[in-house]
Amino acid sequence: MELIDVFAVVGSCGPERGIAARRLAEETGAMLVPAPRLAMAPDPVDEAAALVPWAYRERRAVVEPPAFISMTDLIGTFVDEDRSTRLVGITCVVDAGHIIDDLRRDDYFVRRTPAGEEGCSRALIAAEQIEFASTVLLVNWQPLSTPNLSAVMAVVSHLSPHAVLQLDRSGSARPVEPTVYTAGQERPGWVGILNDDYHPHITDPRVSAFRYEQLRLMHPERLSRLLDQRIARGEFGTVLRSAGFCRLASRPHLTANWEHVGQMFSLHPLQADGGDVAGDGEPGGSEMLGLGQDIALIGLDLDRERLTAALDAAALTDAEFAAGPTLWASFADPFPIPRTSMR
Fold it and tell me: Is residue 95 within 8 Å of 140, Cβ to Cβ?
């Protein structure tokens, strides 16, 4: 069976995204599935998957999902071996003048799902669209000063080191070699940092990234104060993105996914010791995800030494560690860990 090549064009800037999608469809001779058509559907990604097979003559389609879709859902749908599609590229349209502010937003979309409505962090969606892109098209960059443009380009490159970065001069991305996506893509920069395989193509003195590792469990109340009173207020520079794995002393047998963009922070249960996924009872594999903290951090003007020291101070002290789980269970724990993460 001949597959239909699918190009996706994503981004939070609706007009610019729409222009880029239309021009890409014209330049490649592809059928266009526009965002206004998909936004009316209960599940825009499933709707796109149902419409793409109509491109049986062109054998290629450009899908422009609405801003609030999940990137993992988008990729998972179009790389599904049971479908007649091949995802060959994701272009993320980024407004250069707004992207830093977008990554620091604290508001949410409301997204409909089969289980009901759920909150979707706008900042997290903006970050993940960049992280999973094969091409990032930077629009409205002309008013920026050279230093500010350099910093923005470096932030994008640090978030998505595998992506081709283009400055928009025509409203569409220049053709690049197809990037065939698979279910196992590990494109986000934070994944590369944790895998010690991280090589952003664009650098800037203001932009940096590093890996934080700590074997000891985190004291939940001290960690909460650090996040809310010091990191969020920019004491150590601007932490734009951090992600990885975390263990709280109040839940010592649970590995959680640390998810942080700008003002948004969540912990999502990944695995309990013994291999079960916490919260749903499904088998999760026998390999332990981590013993303590393993977190990638990306930001502007970061004071790595002081930030590392502050994170270390949020971990258990010698006396707390020696006291053991009986004491740990008494710690105030301000972190709700729901069955599903707030995205």
Answer: yes
Residues 157, 167 contacting (CB under 8 angstroms): no
Per-residue confidence band for 235, with pLDDT thresholds at 50, 70 and 90: very high
Q: According to CATH, where is 3.30.1220.10 located in the chain?
A: 206-328
pLDDT in tens, 63-99: 999 998 999 999 999 999 889 999 999 999 999 999 9
Q: Give the three-class secondary structure for 146.
A: helix
Give the confidence band of 283 by pLDDT, cuts at 50, 70, 90: very low
Are 189 and 162 in contact, with CB atoms under 8 Å apart?
no
Non-local CB neighbours of 193 within 8 Å, separated by 6+ positions: 209, 210, 211, 296, 298
- Number of neighbouring beta carbons within 10 Å of residue 229: 10
Q: Quick one: 85 exposed, middle or buried, by C-beta within 10 A (0-12, 13-18, 19+)?
A: buried
Structure tokens at 97: 């003048």
| H or E element that contains 61 | strand 60-63
Residues 39 and 51: their CA atoms lie apart, in Å, by 13
| pLDDT of 241 over the 80 cut | yes
Domain 4-187 is in which class?
A: alpha beta
Residues of the chain with CATH 3.40.50: 4-187
CATH superfamily of 206-328: CobW-like, C-terminal domain (3.30.1220.10)
Q: How far is CA 248 from the centre of its chain?
A: 22
- Residue of 245, 220, 242, 229 lying closest to 314 (CA atoms): 220
Residue 190 is which amino acid?
W
